Amino acid sequence: MEVGVMKMVNMLSHEAQGKKEKLDLKETELRLGLPGTDGEIMGKNLIMNYNGKRGYQETVDLKLNLSGMDQTDHHKEKNLQKEKTPAKAQVVGWPPVRSFRKNVMAVQKNGSEETTDKAGMGGATFVKVSMDGAPYLRKVDLKMYTSYQELFDALGKMFSSFTIGMIDFMNESKLMDLLNGSEYVPTYEDKDGDWMLVGDVPWKMFVESCKRLRIMKGTEAIGLAPRAMEKCKNRS
Amino acid sequence: MSEDEELPDLGGGSTRSSNSTAVSGGGGDHNYVSPSPDQVLENVLENVLCFLTSRRDRNAASLVCKSWYRAEALTRSELFIGNCYSVSPRRVTNRFRLVKAIAIKGKPRFSDFSLLPPDWGAHFGPWLSAMSRSYRALEKLYLKRMSVTDDDLSFAAQSFPILKELVMVCCEGFGTGGLAIVASGCREIRVLELMDSDVGDDEADWISCFPDNVTCLESFVFDCVEAPINFEALERLVARSPSLKKLRLNCYISIGQLYRLMIRAPQLTHLGTGSFSPLEIVAQGEQELNYFSAFAACKSLICLSGFREIIPDYLSAIYPVCGNLTSLNLSYANINAEQLKPVICLCHKLQTFWVLDSVSDEGLQAVSAACKDLRELRVFPVQALEDAEGPVSEVGLLAISEGCRKLQSILYFCQRMTNAAVVAMSKNCLDLVVFRLCIMGRHRPDHITGEPMDEGFGAIVKNCKKLTRLAVSGLLTDRAFSYIGQYGKLLRTLSVAFAGNTDLGLKYLLEGCPKLQKLEIRDSPFGDSALFAGLHHYYNMRFLWMSSCKVTRQGCEEIARQLPGLVVEVITRDREENETSEYVDTLYMYRSLDGPRADAPRLMVRPSLMICGKHCTSTECRFSIARSLDFTLSVWVPCISR
């Protein structure tokens, strides 16, 4: 079945993260569908999002709000069956609050959770995101996300017309396929000024060390491959 | 400051009559030897028509006869285009020759809530092309929900050398690069206001692009620009703008920087305070600035907003100006009742108040006690979720209704409500013109009685005889709509979501509300039969929006057949093979003099980003598209082929 905006080759797994969440393809698949048309996807709130505006997307924001809920609610949403009138899942564009306002509130919420001192903005980690061929830069606050998947979701919506390949560091040949293909691959510049493939290190470490993001064509990222290859070999 | 302004302030008062320039101009040749009676009539008319500023009056005058039509067309200098697709730019520039001010609105309001695909349309480009040829003396440009590119801004700066006012509300498609061109190119600019717009960060230092000499800036609003700016340049700009009265800063301005700006511009009347927090750690040894005195020095301040990342401790700095404030926007300030009270009790002149529900019912009670002159209240949710904690309820609404009898406009988000409170408001606030209640839980009844919210909204339409705008929510049956149809005789704008039982609901509205202009409905069980009930009225409306209702393709086609003057746009998302739907996803229809638009995504001449499934290889598109959004936008061409 064809997928929507994002195509995920395989889910990332990191030993360092401890938790193994190996979701199968169908669950991570993104499609455009009405709320309630596919119960498994509903919980992800990736439904009928027409917002191609620059800036944070509605569903990203909804995700953040979800993180305030406890785990049982989250799983309950994921398991809801087909319903014409979904009771609990968030619906696109409801309540009718503009994205700008939702984004501001989300940023504030994250900021306040992070800081105890007077510097209100200290909690955010904004990095610039550029994409090869795109006429403008974007900025993302890495602290808004808790995993690579969330970051990729957000990036995918910001630059909604490309697909980002997820890098499978466990599988050397898959990695090479990705880098040889025409898909886009996210890379970042770390504190030392080195350019690395995103996904290389555990999420938290990435947030600490990432200075800027660049989404480049797979073929161009091939130069970064040696380092990644090393890691592949070390892992397997 | 308005999140959903109906009419832009184009004229700024009739005394500023830009119509007066029409007197010397005019379209006819002045034959001084022997003017014909017709000519005399036209001269007289032109002189008289100058005094007609209301567009409705002018519309009426233009219908009297051909002579009046011509005279009116030549003397109208302020244009209002409520729907950019209702008429072609060329038709407009052919008819009105002397336009100095124009307002153009594009996308329907529900696009604010992600209910329209990106690239749907409302491009400023075509309007700009026409205007750049015909309206070179344009002074004021107001755009709402339009798609504007950097190139557009550049072309506009070149085309309108004496442009004085540029206001963009809820627009997108441009970035700080475009703003840089405006800043440097529009030398006469007095008003530059960007509100709720999505402005891309091109990393352009646009503030530095304003000319170096003394500027004539009177209003500079950029609070929605989510990009850092060059503060030193801003400080210098403010220092060389002696006429500056309105300044709204974005969240990248710290409170320390705000202080420096306020010192430079004590003449300000409207101030958007930016982040209202330090942003950096205050260096040791550095004294905390005396913000209180900075505010005290601004003796003309009547409107405050901003507070984007407020540290509540700093709020006391605004005490000196509270007594003069007529407008206060705390709707980004997450403060509680205790933090609000000391401020609000000083604001006895307040007429407009926007706030977050974090202040809870208790905070609203304080507002009710202090702000006897309140005309407009908006209460926004901190958490825009259906099942969140709701700090405000019917208690707050009731308190407001009892204390603020002059209330004209209310927007109230809550999680629970009762009919009793809404009824009380309908009886206490008889001046209500706008009543928008958003009970965030879908289909939620009166939380005390368990009844639908029919009686509450019924009372509003019945008792508030001046009501022109209504937004309903909560559990509503067809009865609520029967009330609206029965009593809502002045209603122009109506928003409906997750309401009603059967087609009767919509029928009541279409048959009962003769002044209905803008009807937006989502997720309600109204179908074709109800749609047909409005055939007699659709030409009088600006638009009808129905999404996730029970309207079929055939129904839409039938409407288009019967009403050739309507453009009927339908959006149906592509579904998987096994999924079918008999209903269209979105119906958006509007009257138009010039038929279906040529720039609907599917009908674009050049390959569009939105053509489903196709790979876009146009050199104009810089992206390589593997998969685009799946939907089909169909535009019906009734009988007449294009």
Automatic annotation (TrEMBL), chain A:
Family label: Belongs to the Aux/IAA family.
Q: Extract one GO cellular component term from the record.
A: nucleus
Q: Where in the cell is it found?
A: Nucleus
The residues covered by the PB1 domain are: 124-218
Concerning SUPFAM superfamilies, the annotation shows:
CAD & PB1 domains (SSF54277)
InterPro entries recorded: AUX/IAA_dom, AUX_IAA, PB1-like
Biological process annotations from GO: auxin-activated signaling pathway
Name the chain's protein.
Auxin-responsive protein
Q: What domain of life? A: Eukaryota
Keywords in UniProt for this one? Answer: Auxin signaling pathway, Nucleus, Repressor, Transcription, Transcription regulation
Stated role:
Aux/IAA proteins are short-lived transcriptional factors that function as repressors of early auxin response genes at low auxin concentrations.
Q: What Pfam families would the database entry show? A: AUX_IAA (PF02309)
What is known about its subunit structure? Homodimers and heterodimers.
UniProtKB/TrEMBL annotation, chain B:
One Pfam family matching this protein: Transp_inhibit
The pathway is: Protein modification; protein ubiquitination
Recite the UniProt keywords alphabetically: Auxin signaling pathway, Nucleus, Ubl conjugation pathway
Identify the main location: nucleus
Region Disordered: start-end pairs: 1-33
- Where located? Nucleus
Q: Which SMART domains match?
A: LRR_CC
List each copy of the COI1 F-box domain by range. 38-77
Gene Ontology cellular-component annotations: nucleus
Which superkingdom heads the taxonomic lineage of this protein's source? Answer: Eukaryota
Q: Which GO terms describe its biological process?
A: auxin-activated signaling pathway
Domain Transport inhibitor response positions: 99-143
Q: How does it assemble?
A: Part of a SCF (SKP1-cullin-F-box) protein ligase complex. May interact with auxin and auxin-responsive proteins.
* Protein name stated in the entry: Transport inhibitor response 1-like protein
What is the scientific name of the source organism? Abeliophyllum distichum
Ranked from the top, the taxonomy reads: Eukaryota, Viridiplantae, Streptophyta, Embryophyta, Tracheophyta
